[in-house]
Amino acid sequence: MRSRKTFTLVFAGSTLLTVAAYATPGPQRMVAPKLYGLTEIADGVYTDDPSKAAQEMLLISQANAKVKAFFGALETTPRYVLCTTMMCEKAFGKNNRIAVTYGWHAIHLPPRGANDPHLGQILLTHERVHSELHKRWGASELWDAKFPTWFDEGLASYLSGDDRLRLDYSDKDIQWISHARRIYSWGSFIQERGWADAYGAATAYVTRIQAKAGEKGLHELIDRTIKGEDFDAVLADLMRDNRS
Ligand SMILES: [Zn+2]
């Protein structure tokens, strides 16, 4: 009896927790976007405004083409949630400030991107670069300093052609952002000097690597670190003047 009662209580409790989780606005709702009024306009692509489906799918395919141009064949098929209104945005616990990638599984685009094709393409490209890089690096690696966050953000911004950022950052600025190594410390760099400087300096750093070693060098940095070499050692190798 006792165990049955315990089971019932635990079951009732976990059901309540599940109900509470989905009743509370937040990204967990991306598991079942249709429950919150979104329409699936293509496999795994959800929006609150299916009348814009053609434009939304074009944005995704243009972003994917840019990411493919760098990575080659794409390894991920993230779910997309595109919100064109604040009502949708709030249902997923967002405030129209940023686009987000969850691991390599899901991408959320806020109204300011969904309603502005130019910005929308930049944001979708940026997030899709994250999903491809996160898949190649492996999720657990993102939480340690092995693959620095400045490179993750810098590469995403560089490949998205983010024209909101300036790139004329000094050695001192690059030095500053090179300390942004972990995903959970990125916010403190944004807080310190603002998002434009954090993303701008990270992008300027990636641009410097590209100028020195080419996109081939960026690939080499990613590929060698995936195989277990130390990121900083490979980077130093790429940036040497007399590299043979
Ligand atoms: Zn990012």
List keywords for this structure.
single chain; 244 residues; alpha/beta; 2 domains; 5-stranded mixed beta sheet; 10 helices; globular; binds zinc ion; signal; Peptidase MA-like domain-containing protein
Quaternary organisation of the protein chains: single chain
The total count of helices amounts to 10
Number of strands: 5
- Please outline the major beta sheet: 5 strands, mixed
Q: Which percent bin holds the helix content?
A: 55-70%
Could you say which overall geometry the principal axes of the C-alpha atoms support? globular
What number is the mean pLDDT?
Answer: 89
Number of domains: 2
Bound ligands, each once: zinc ion
Could you tell me how far the N terminus lies from the C terminus, measured between alpha carbons in angstroms? Answer: 76 Å
Broad structural category: alpha/beta
H/E topology pattern: HEEHEHEEHHHHHHH
Strand content: 5-15%
Protein name: Peptidase MA-like domain-containing protein
Signal peptide: 1-23
Keywords: Signal
Q: Can you tell me about this structure?
A:
- This is Peptidase MA-like domain-containing protein.
- Residues 1-23 form the signal peptide.
- Keywords: Signal.
- This protein has 2 domains: 25-137, no CATH class; 144-244, no CATH class.
- The longest helix has 32 residues, at 195-226.
- With 244 residues, the chain is α/β, with parallel strands linked by helices.
- Helix 2 crosses helix 5 (117-137), helix 7 (171-177) packs across helix 9 and helix 9 (195-226) crosses helix 10.
- It has helices spanning 2-23, 53-71, 86-91, 111-114, 117-137, 149-160, 171-177, 186-193, 195-226, 231-239; strands at residues 39-42, 45-47, 79-82, 100-102, 106-109.
- The model has no long low-confidence stretch (mean pLDDT 89).
- Bound molecules: zinc ion.
- Zinc ion binds at residues 126, 130, 153, 156.
